[in-house]
Amino acid sequence: SLESDKLNDEYEALIKQINWFKEILASEKVVLSIIKEELLEIKEKYGDMRRTRIMFSADEINMEDMIEDEDVVITLTHFGYIKRMPEGTYRPQKRGGRGVIALSKREEDFVEDLYITSTHSTILFFTSKGRVFSLKAYEIPEGSRTARGTAIVNLLSLNPDERVSAIIPLYKHNPEGYLVMATRDGTVKKTELNQFENIRKTGIIGITLRDDDELISVKLTDGEEDLILVTQKGMAIRFNEKDVRDMGRTAMGVKGVSLKKKDLVVSMEIVEKDKHLLVISEKGFGKRTPLDEYKTQIRGGKGLITYSIKEKTGDIVSARVVSDQDEIMIISLNGTIIRLGIKDISIMGRNTQGVTLMRMKDDKVVAVAQYIGE
Q1: Which of 140, 164, 221, 308 gets the most CB atoms within 10 Å of its CB?
Q2: Do 252 and 324 belong together in one domain?
Q3: pLDDT tens, position by position, 302-312
């Protein structure tokens, strides 16, 4: 019948089509031939001249372009909380200075580092483990003067046993100069600043540390500064940074001071003309000594006595280069805080004990923060 003939014809057509598809799938040459034929058909039908132009955008949106470049204050507390505030919050502070301010949220916490910089500046964070992180100032969350701030571990990928030991604000896109680093075991290292550009989010190595050593201080220098290292047992050595050759980021550094057994470095400072070296002991004693009393030596030596350590004074906790206009805040283990003007602290020779700055009873000094005056 006509109906059965029609079905047979459709069946034979489908079998031929199936066999053709099998041939296509079995041969790459046939596949490419079909693609070529179909593309030639498309070209013949639609192959007119391009009407649009493909070009690189000269006006790509940059986050920084949308943020006003203005002066801001960056603070980091002893317990690791950081925030950004308008510059007017701390008018007495000078640019690049370190300072302190009481916090209402948590009385036992205090601002350990304070810097005035700009929203577009790059902030380098050096950790106790020798790693370096970088943030733009505008990436640090803004907070009020009395707000606690943001835990820095939420901004930097710090390990549980790692803390920020130095902050360096950079004010230009391509800054010149050097970063001089000091470790607890007396090693120093100098590296060109341009080696710290384009830091990835996970951080980079700033210095390779020996076992159980820690990075304690980093200073931005011009390559010709005098530096002074102060140890826990009351020694100090002053040397010129030219005595420290430039090294790469991952280098370990060279000996800055020879330490006695059970001694360690507590501070590194840049020597400034007409200023004093303030030293503070764990039992609340302190004094300041003219920097002229510390002659420049070759790095790696034992240095000079800067403090007469006695049982009643305890070891040195901190040392700072200060001027009469500065203030300090001394913090004890039990949470007691005292703020003093530098001009009220006695000037004495190197080999002396100093005077009582903070009375201690079953307590000891654990930290000192400095407020830079105008």
Answers
A1: 140
A2: yes
A3: 999 999 999 99
- Give the containing element (helix H, strand E) for 4: helix 2-26
Domain count of the fold of the chain? 2
The string of DSSP letters for 307-334 reads S---TTT-SEEEEEEE-TT-EEEEEETT
Helices (H), 172-329: none
Measuring CA to CA, how many Å separate 239 from each of 209, 291, 298? 22, 12, 6
300 and 232 in one domain?
yes
Exposure string over 92-131, b if 16+ CB within 10 A, otherwise e:
ebeeebbbbbebeeeeebbbbbbbbbbbbbbbbbbbbbbb
Q: Are residues 194 and 314 in the same domain?
A: yes
Tell me the pLDDT tens digit for each residue of 83-112.
Answer: 998 876 654 433 333 444 444 445 567 777
The pTM (predicted TM-score) of the whole model is 0.77
Residue 234 lies in a domain: yes
171 & 42 share domain: no
Question: Do 14 and 110 sit in the same domain of this protein?
Answer: no
Instruction: Show the CA angle centred on residue 119, arms to residues 373 and 58, nearest 5°.
Output: 150
- Contact by Cβ (8 Å): 82, 117: no
69/82 Cα distance (integer angstroms): 20
DSSP state of 244: S
Residues 329, 371 contacting (CB under 8 angstroms): yes
Q: Residue 289's domain spans which residues? A: 74-371
Q: Which long-range contacts (CB under 8 A, 24 or more apart) does 6-15 make?
A: none
